[in-house]
Give the backbone structure.
Amino acid sequence: MARLTIRVEACTEILAVLILMAWADGKLQEPEKASIRSAAKVLNLSKDLRDRLETLLTNPVPLSELLLSNLGGKDRSFAYVAAAWLSGVDEDVDAKEQDKLAELQQALELDDDRAKELRSLASELSKPKKDAWAEELVALFNAIPVRLEASPDDELEVAFE
């Protein structure tokens, strides 16, 4: 069995990307906030990293203020898949979410073909449920790496450290 480790700093920035996407409509609902907080605990993020996320939950920031340059290639793909997945919560991606995904694609330095491939991967994941965000986020963090990394015959254990 192969083991894939995702650094907690990468988890934090990916959650920050999800917060940014959730803010795309101009508001962040309490269930969305609670889910991010819950996911941060499940992923065992330090108090400093949870505090960073808490700031983002309270005050939306521009994409340029996220620490995306700290993400490696696979983490960038992971972040984009997660954002594309989240944009599917309403069954159709509204214009603000499309704009935010396009902005994220550029910030993550993904070419059009790779972004299309990652959106396709996101569409294959189970659709997020608005009322079960916390569980969905944890499932998402376990499902994406398997899709990005493994061949169909591989068994992959995902660890967050």
